[in-house]
Design brief:
single chain; 219 residues; alpha/beta; 6-stranded parallel sheet; 9 helices
């Protein structure tokens, strides 16, 4: 059974877009320029350096593009500190790359705001479980470009499957295309929310559990 998101939690509750934009402005972003974001643990399997490389390729075509790398530290992953330091070292080479974490005041509400305010969400994983952050972004009608791995393809079906990528170059190509075609991005966002609504919300999980219990009781 696939995981499900709670639409009423602080991480997924509705926040007006202008409020989200104000929040990211306060963190140093230019809300008048395009922003792409990756939200994930500081983990090599999330391929943060692949995301940075794709961003740099895309920025050659779209000057002024900004990248937010938002991560969290897991107590069971001591390597995350080294990964965070390495990501920061790359970010320091570009004034338009920003790195935030749960230790710098970016919690669930801020992640929610970034997922809503961003023009694209990138989840360039090379190994993944279900990839719940993909469902969270799609629920907010933000288009996603993601690694073609783990449980991500089951969330990105139909037209969204065209934005499952296997390389840095492919990721950069999709970033450029969607940023240059906002009508396509908007359509993908709506399709993504519909997929999550039908399959990956907590009420759906409860419904399935009740259906299972009913079937067992009636046997």
């Amino acid at each position: 059974m696939a995981p499900a998101i709670c639409p009423f939690s602080s991480k997924n509750m509705f926040i007006k877009k202008y409020v989200c934009r104000e929040l990211i402005e306060n963190l140093g972003f230019d809300s008048h320029r395009l922003l792409i974001t990756q939200v994930s643990r500081f983990d090599r399997w999330k391929d943060p350096f692949g995301t940075i490389a794709a961003y740099r390729l895309a920025k050659e075509k779209i000057p002024g593009l900004q990248l937010a790398m938002i991560g969290s530290f897991a107590q069971d992953d001591p390597e995350s500190w080294d990964m965070h330091a390495a990501i920061n070292a790359e970010a320091n080479k570009d004034d338009d790359i920003f790195v935030y974490s749960n230790l710098t005041g970016v919690g669930n509400m801020e992640v929610n705001a970034f997922q809503r305010a961003s023009d694209l969400i990138i989840q360039k994983s090379i190994r993944e479980g279900f990839g719940l952050v993909v469902a969270e972004a799609l629920w907010k009608e933000t288009p996603v470009i993601a690694g073609n791995t783990g449980g991500i393809p089951m969330q990105m079906t139909g037209e969204l499957s065209n934005y499952l990528v296997d390389s840095v170059e492919e990721c950069a190509e999709k970033i450029i295309y969607l940023l240059e075609n906002p009508a396509v991005s908007q359509r993908l966002g709506k399709e993504g929310k519909n997929i999550v609504t039908q399959n990956f919300l907590m009420p759906r999980l409860i419904r399935d559990e009740l259906t299972l219990i009913k079937s067992l009781v009636n046997k």
